[in-house]
Amino acid sequence: MSMFYCSSCDRLVDSDLAPEFEYCEITKDWTCQSCLENEADDQRIRARELERIQDYSDPYLNWSGLR
Q1: pTM of this prediction?
Q2: b/e for 57-66, b at 16 or more Cβ within 10 A?
Q3: What phi, psi does 44 have (nearest 5°)?
Q4: 6 and 35 Cβ atoms separated by less than 8 Å
Q5: d(CA 64, CA 45)
Q6: Distance of CA 66 to the CA centre of its chain
Q7: What is the pLDDT of residue 64?
Q8: Which residues fall within 8 angstroms of residue 14, CB to CB, at 6 or more apart?
Q9: Is the alpha carbon torsion for 17, 18, 24, 30 positive or negative?
Q10: What confidence score (pLDDT) does residue 46 get?
């Protein structure tokens, strides 16, 4: 049983309860499984928002007339 401190959520996490975690060699930070999942969700949301912005700016995909 080992414990590590998650730098994203500022919690002490047991490695037995959260077996998936990531260690960054450069910053020397640990990130727990729930923070990794949240980060992946945020990336998907940002990608969808960027796609909507690009569709809005495209004259062929934007049928609303608002440019």
Answers
A1: 0.54
A2: eeeeeeeeee
A3: -65, -40
A4: yes
A5: 23
A6: 31
A7: 65
A8: 1, 2, 3
A9: negative
A10: 93
**What is the C-alpha separation between 49 and 4, in angstroms, rounded?**
34
Residue at 36: amino acid letter: L
* 2: nearest Cα among 20, 12, 21, 15: 15
Q: Which two tokens stand for residue 50?
A: 């960027």
What is the pLDDT tens value at each position of the chain, 67 positions in all?
A: 677 778 788 788 777 765 677 887 888 888 888 888 888 888 999 999 998 888 777 777 666 655 5
Place of tokens 């994203």: 8
CB atoms within 10 A of CB 12: 9
